[in-house]
Amino acid sequence: MTIANRLNSFLNQHNVQYEVIGHRPSHNSIDSAMRAEVPVNQVAKAVILESHEGRKLMAVLPANNKISLSRINSKMMGEYHLVKENEIRHMFKDCEFGAIPPVGYAYNVNVVFDDKLDELSHVYIEAGDHKSLLRLSKTDFIRLMSSAKHSRFSDEVYH
Question: What is the pTM of this model?
Fold first, then answer.
């Protein structure tokens, strides 16, 4: 179980308490939730967006939700599109491919988070590898997101 260096430093700097939840290797955030035996809606995933001007934005939403670009664009008053994972690999060098922690400020990326995450008592986040999640209290998660904009911009996808 490895926590990405930048994430670990950022959490320590902000005095964020967390519990490491190990699990068998996973392929995505839903798989991580299932293997760690935690509620899928309590796992926050990161989706990287880019404006037509090249500015990056991290959207943080529940793992079982799908982002609505029209709502993001309305909230952010911009024109953002999804960025493919292989195009952002260089931004998260201390993370395994596809295991991006949803803490953009640790990587100098602005953040917007979905209000659904504000309703939870705990939030689980990727640690930067495919074998561990970090369990954060709602208080610590909201503190990490205090500079972020937030709104309702995703919808639950049923599996």
Answer: 0.94
